[in-house]
Design brief:
With about 400 residues, the protein is mainly alpha-helical. It contains 15 helices and two strands. It has helices at about 1-15, 15-25, 40-55, 65-80, 80-110, 120-140, 145-155, 165-175, 180-215, 230-255, 285-295, 300-315, 315-320, 330-350, 355-390, and strands at about 25-30, 230. The longest helix is centred in the C-terminal third of the chain and has 34 residues, at about 355-390.
């Protein structure tokens, strides 16, 4: 019976033909390494966020007088197993962003932003940007002390822009001159409707572009999809399936045993506009940008610096025009890639420390080395073009 139903559906949808063309006949390089699985893991993390978020919205109340209780009593204590959904959603947001960062650094290492994949990288950048906005909007919803004051700091950043523009942006973000019901309602709508819908569209388009342009080769050499490579199914599906199982094991280990990393105790205190917490800092995924901003004495220059960091990431395909692909075959690029990784890690760590003069100087130093990576790309590209032509390349 089920076989006949399946055949009836297949005759009208041609699912078997789609599976054959997109999974079995689709060829990928046979030497893909473990970091290539970060993209699939991020897709799984995104699905977990959508599912857990749907359940949480059933009981959460976007009201300044009820938000804290609905998040910390109704969801955590009154509804059976809803604590698990909140744990999964809170930990999942951090894991999702960690996977996206790893996916981006993998793409930079393997030069996955070069022709014919420039648009794939650009769409991926927009996914990253919208994801940061989604995480920020969700951070406010528990309406705890850290949520409230973290958003106060965030909404004050645009005031670094001279003139009335910065103040106007800050007021628009808050929906007034202070955080209140309008802010909470606005961020709730952004977090559960607008931004996830945009993310769904961007992720779908990103996956289409990955299939259209093909997966980059770790060695930086394009393959003939009809003659070389291995079928995506079953070779890659089984390999990536094993990686995903490993990821889920690690993820749920943290969900059940180490949730204090994702739900800090200070945020289990209701938001109080008259009591400022002793230490206010953004979540870890924004610490590098935060360090860049606060390390520069002039607030407007700090705002320009961290905005420029995001812009340079977007323009990466056009800054690096070398004929070679993959850091494995580019020694100069590999050195600067290590500089990028060390700088990003150092800026993130400095963001957790007090803003002392020493830390500010270190922040300026690592900000300079971070920008040195992007500035060096055109120079390295020119040098490598010389090498390429010297070897008879056109």
């Amino acid at each position: 019976m089920f076989g006949r139903i399946g055949k009836w559906i297949d005759e009208r949808t041609h699912i078997s033909e789609l599976w054959q063309s997109q999974m079995v006949e689709y060829k990928v390089p046979k030497n893909l390494t473990f970091p290539y699985a970060f993209g699939v893991m991020a897709l799984v993390a995104f699905a977990i966020q959508i599912i857990s978020g749907i359940f949480l919205t059933m009981y959460y109340q976007p009201n300044v007088h009820a938000a804290f209780d609905s998040a910390n009593y109704t969801i955590m204590k009154e509804i059976p197993f809803m604590w698990l959904f909140r744990h999964v959603h809170a930990a999942g947001a951090n894991f999702f962003l960690a996977l996206v960062y790893l996916h981006m650094f993998t793409g930079i290492y393997y030069n996955a932003y070069k022709k014919p994949r420039e648009l794939t990288w650009i769409v991926g950048w927009f996914i990253f940007f919208i994801l940061l906005a989604t995480a920020l909007s969700g951070y406010l919803l528990p309406w705890g002390q850290l949520s409230y004051w973290g958003m106060v700091v965030t909404t004050e950043i645009p005031t670094a822009i001279p003139g009335a523009l910065g103040e106007t942006i800050s007021v628009w973000m808050k929906g007034g001159y202070e955080l209140g019901q309008i802010t909470l309602g606005r961020f709730f709508g952004l977090h559960i409707w607008l931004l996830p819908l945009i993310l769904l569209g961007l992720v779908g388009f990103h996956l289409y572009l990955v299939r259209a342009a093909g997966i980059s080769n770790p060695e930086g050499v394009e393959i003939d999809k009809k003659k070389e490579g291995v079928p995506f199914h079953p070779y890659m599906t089984l390999k990536e399936g094993a990686y995903v199982m490993g990821y889920l094991a690690v993820f749920f280990f943290f969900v059940f045993f180490y949730m204090h990393h994702f739900l800090p105790a200070d945020n289990f205190e209701p938001a109080n506009p008259f009591k400022t917490p002793p230490h206010i800092a953004p979540e870890w995924y924004l610490l590098a940008f935060y360090t860049i901003f606060r390390s520069i004495p002039q607030k407007f220059l700090g705002f320009i610096a961290f905005s420029l960091t995001l812009l340079l990431l977007l323009l990466l395909p056009f800054l690096d025009f070398s004929p070679f692909k993959s850091a494995r075959k580019r020694p100069l690029f590999f050195v600067m890639y290590i500089v990028l990784v060390i700088s990003a890690m150092a800026l993130t760590i400095l963001g957790t420390m007090p803003p002392t003069p020493t830390n500010a100087m270190l922040g300026l130093t690592f900000t300079a080395t971070l920008f040195a990576f992007f500035i060096s790309l055109p120079v390295i590209s020119v040098i490598e073009w010389g090498w390429y032509k010297a070897r008879g390349g056109k």
